[in-house]
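User: Could you walk me through two proteins back to back? I'd like the raw sequence and the structure tokens for each, with a short line separating them so I can tell where one ends and the next begins.

Assistant: Of course. Protein one, sequence then structure:
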Amino acid sequence: MTKITAIIPTLNEEIHIEAAIKSVHFADEIIVIDSYSSDKTVVLAEKHNVKIIKRKFDDFSSQKNFAIDQAKHPWIYILDADERVTPEVEEEILKAVIDPKDYVGFYVRRSFYFAGKNINYGGCQSDKVVRLFLKKECRYEGVVHETIKTNEQLGFFKNKIEHYSYKNYDHYISKMNHYGELRGKEYFNNGKKVNLYHFLIKPPARFVIHYVIRFGFLDGFQGFIFAKAQAYGVYVRYIKLWLYNRNVK
């Protein structure tokens, strides 16, 4: 009951994949589930002792749940390719699987890096995700911002993992476009409509939330750009919804 399968979902993550794999070297099994990357992600992953599964991407929850079903071991550690497990968190993971107490999974907080700078505010101060959990007790739900669902208790690790989500502004915008596409499609499937409110009010409101209310201004210029990018992501999702409603993809 102490063995761990680490799962790394990938799509064109050649700049991250090897460091990500090394980051979970403590796992008894490592699965890379790849959405048919067009770069060197798979080639680089094959240099390491990992199991590679190729699966067409439909949504984040389905992709991760599929990989979880292939895991040999009871404990799952999910690692996004742009995350790194620190030695301190590794120690907490290994202790948790030996003595989880009454917990079936654990939240871990993340140190967020944007364009080479650690972003401490703008909402990042409350960033936490479930990364370690028991396979039989937990499943993912949600199309874009997938979350772990369980009827049992979840604990917290004290230390943080590192999150290098965006190497530069262009990379960030490309991800915002991708997430916007997925969110717009989700809204469309749920029968949502769009109006001027979604374009004129919601994006500026999102900027204010991240830059002012969540103290993004304390991160300097990077905090300003981060908040602007978050607002852009909101704008994109409603553009995509508007296009879907007009049968234009």
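----
Protein two, same layout:
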Amino acid sequence: MIYIQIVISLLGGILLGWVIRQKIASHLTQSAEAKAKEILNKAKAKQQEILLKAKEDSLKILDQAKKEEDERRREIKKTEQRMERRQTVFEEKILELEENRKKLNQEKDSIEQAKDKIRQIYEKARAELERISSLSVEEAKELLLESTEEKIKDDILERIKKLEKYGSEEIEERAKSLITSVIERCAAAHTAEVTTSSVSLPSDEIKGRIIGREGRNIRVVEQLTGVEIVVDDTPEVVFVSAFNPIRRQLAKLVLDKLILDGRIQPARIERVVQDTKKELARDIRKAGEDAIYQVGVTGLDPKLVQLLGRLKYRTSYGQNVLQHSLEVANLSAMLAEELGAKVAICRKAGLLHDIGKAMDFEIQGTHPEIGKDIGEKYNLAPEVITPIATHHDDHPPTLEAIIVKVADAISSARPGARKGSYQEYIQRLEELENIARKFNEVERVYAIQAGRELRVFVSPVKTDDLGASKLARKIADRVEEELKYPGEIKVTVIRENRISEYAR
């Protein structure tokens, strides 16, 4: 019974708990549903709010868009009106231009007709004049020119003389002033050093020792140095003959050392030649370095400096080429200062203008062409290469090239700079005189002042003063075309008419 009560009690407790849980669950469900409804109601209210706001915003946007569209339409309408007005104006202008073109064409046609009529009248008048005068147009023109020249030739001659005098005096004065100031600033010896090719001997007995037994010594010297030793009857001297000046200098130094030492034999000659080659190479390099230091030129390739030093043993018409190059460099720099040109370019180009002569006995071609190739090989600036390549041209392309050419002519033409053979001198004077003798009016010709002036005597019967003036210009032009010469040549034409009468 007790168990039954206990079981009943337990079942009652369980049932009571279940009932309580059901009530609690029901209460919780009702509370959640209420909250959900409340949230849902709030969401619906918020949704309504958002929709209302969105509608308001959309209405505002639509209103703004309508306003902007209306504004654009008004602007487009105004633009269309402006375009229509412009099109109207353009159409009016086109019509006006078309009318003007028609008028111009009509005027052109009338002008062409008038020209044809004038041309016909001119041809008729010309034919009538030719018939009356029995002269063609060219003959009448020639006759008129001759008549005019005959009447006013004195005035023409006077005018020509006046213009020539004024122009030549002013140009000559300016040129003299410029060149004089430059030459005064360039102090150089009147006679440059000339490389000798003779070896002095203390006595004639040394000649036999130089030749050696059966000519062994002299053959060894010639083979090792590449020269020819000339031993003749000239007392106490032997001559070194070679086209290459470096070889000639090498042989001269070798002979000087052998003569001083006294031991002249093949083995000794070989050692002396080897030592002398090294000394000569050092001397050549030092000469090049001294040259660039003396004129203030920098940035040259060492091999180019070595080539420059070789000019110390190179001569041209008896003038030492290295001394000549230094002089041209200084003259070029001074001329560039006076004329406003590039001083550094002129100085470097003046120093290297004859660099081709360091190789012209080894490479085929003229020394300006060789110098150009050397400049390109050692990366010289084009502004420097141009004067080197054109310093003997008639019309150098740049101001710097002209300056180098002028400086080269000044250095070569000054007294004592060069020496030429007697035959070359006579030949040049004869060529100069023969040019003037080709003209029929010429009676006698004399080249004076070492070929710097040409005096031409003409027949007074064959030409007048105006013709003499023209003849001087023709002769000068012919000299410029046919001869090559440093400096300038003055052509003086003399027309003398002597009239003699006798009183008996």
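Residues 387 and 401 are 4 Å apart (CA to CA).

Let me know if you want the two compared in more detail.
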